[in-house]
Design a protein that fits this description.
Chain lengths: ~240, ~230
């Protein structure tokens, strides 16, 4: 069998299918437990529905970008393994880099060259290396996840107002770190970020003026689509 | 936080991640056994993967320390299903803003777990649809227009997310002027990046920004610029 035949074999499709079903079951179990607890602590069904609808709608667009990555990854490592890698842990940038580093480590010029050579002997190494290389986060969260969360909760509860303030600003680090790093990539990146900010502001004003609270669930998704679409305009003029 | 729930959600998360790891290693093992394509030796695995491990293990671990305070018990499902920066973190921030729940509280943690579970399921199903529709979708999703638009996913995402941070919400309290905390860390990132490129080091930058945010909030609180008050009940 060739490299491509093994990497697109029914066996691999079956194994990956089982893995995907497992992920969906894990999502369902986590959801059920958290949703039940949310009702127990008095959160309203309406608020939770708003969160779920907004999350589901918003998640579609970034997921489509993952599908775009799937197409490029599938051409070099086959459909099922690319499918699994992008559904479990992986992100497109990592997977392409990981596959390429595994191929070059085995003496090939690139993952495309390995695929073209059809060398099956490296398949086990490639798959193991791609899996092990990304496990740091999973092992890290197993070891430290609970302790970190307990640390944050305890800092919050023990220090009254100040504790509440200091723990609430932790999440600001995301925008403080990641927004400027995007904006400095170039004028189009800056323009797209600013466009998205203005779009969010306008939609929030729309909700405030019209009182259409249900629309709040759509703000993120609409901003993302229009913000990305605005890049087509900005690349022409900047 | 409810101890019973906390224990059970962490137990579920840990079991979930361990089973996920078994799948990640089990699939290559079964393929290797059936097609006799095992790695030649552990040494070969190490030789091929050393560069990858050297780059990604510190990055992954820094992400655990940077993102877990925000994700709470949702960290397990987040790190198992991936796409942390571009999908799970924004989803949690958006969900907590919609529910007006702060992280470190029972509500904030529960909303994070709900939103990541929903988001992960949606992503998984979208990718399944992508696999099924691989042939008809390919020309559309790989067209230059879509390729250009997807290149700018992250600036659109973080630009849109910015206003979620412009609020006084602090769980059971209001923190007037809390937004001012953003200024120094953002300027620091821009300044440091001039001398030392930070691209690809997001995990470390997030940890640095957390420390700086806490320091700024502390100073602003002590100098009376940030004013805390209890939210009115009901």
């Amino acid at each position: 069998m060739t490299f491509n035949e093994i990497m697109n074999s029914p066996l691999l499709y079956g194994l990956v299918g089982a893995g995907i079903i497992y992920i969906l079951i894990f999502c369902a179990l986590t959801f059920r437990k958290a949703y039940g607890h949310a009702l127990e602590i008095g959160m309203s069904k309406e608020k939770l529905r708003s969160v779920m609808v907004s999350t589901a709608i918003y998640s579609i667009v970034p997921s489509l970008s993952i599908v775009v990555g799937l197409f490029s990854l599938a051409t070099v490592i086959g459909v099922p393994w690319a499918w699994f890698r992008l559904s479990v842990v992986g992100a497109v940038a990592y997977e392409v880099t990981a596959a390429d580093m595994a191929a070059t480590g085995a003496g090939y010029e690139s993952i495309a060259a390995l695929n073209a050579a059809g060398d099956t002997s490296i398949i086990g190494t490639l798959m193991f290396v791609m899996s092990i290389g990304i496990m740091g986060g999973m092992v890290g969260v197993l070891l430290f996840g609970k302790k970190i969360q307990e640390g944050v909760a305890s800092a919050r509860s023990k220090n009254g107002m100040l504790g509440a303030l200091l723990t609430s600003v932790l999440s600001m680090a995301i925008i403080e770190a990641l927004l400027p790093l995007q904006m400095i990539k170039g004028p189009v990146y800056l323009a797209v970020a600013f466009t998205a900010l203005v779009l969010t502001f306008l939609q929030r004003q729309f909700v405030r003026i019209t009182g259409l609270k249900w629309y709040r669930s759509f703000i993120m998704a609409v901003t993302l689509i229009l913000g990305m679409a605005s890049s087509l305009f900005w690349v022409q003029i900047l | 936080m409810d101890e019973k729930y906390e224990k059970s959600i962490h137990r579920l998360g840990r079991i979930g991640v361990i089973v996920g790891i078994l799948f990640m290693l089990g699939i290559p093992a079964v393929v290797s056994a059936v097609y006799d394509v095992w790695p030649e030796s552990f040494g070969q695995l190490l030789a091929v993967g050393a560069g990858l491990l050297a780059v990604y293990i510190p990055t992954n671990v820094s992400e655990v320390f940077g993102y877990t305070p925000i994700l709470g018990s949702a960290s397990y499902i987040t790190f198992l299903t991936g796409n942390v920066t571009q999908l799970k973190i924004p989803v949690v921030v958006n969900a907590q803003a919609l529910a007006e729940a702060a992280q470190g509280t029972d509500e904030g943690d529960t909303v994070a777990a709900i939103s990541v579970a929903v988001s992960s399921a949606v992503t998984t199903l979208v990718i399944v649809a992508g696999v099924i529709l691989l042939v008809p979708l390919r020309p559309v999703l790989t067209s230059p227009t879509v390729q250009t638009a997807t290149t700018y996913l992250l600036p659109a995402l973080f630009g849109g997310l910015f206003l979620n941070y412009v609020n006084d919400n602090c769980g059971e309290y209001r923190a007037k002027n809390k937004t001012l905390t953003l200024i120094v860390p953002i300027l620091a990132v821009l300044l440091v990046n001039q001398f030392y490129p930070l691209s690809g080091k997001q995990g470390y930058v997030v940890i640095g920004c957390m420390a700086l945010s806490v320091a700024c909030a502390y100073v602003l609180y002590k100098t009376g610029i940030i004013k805390m008050s209890e939210k009115k009940k009901g």
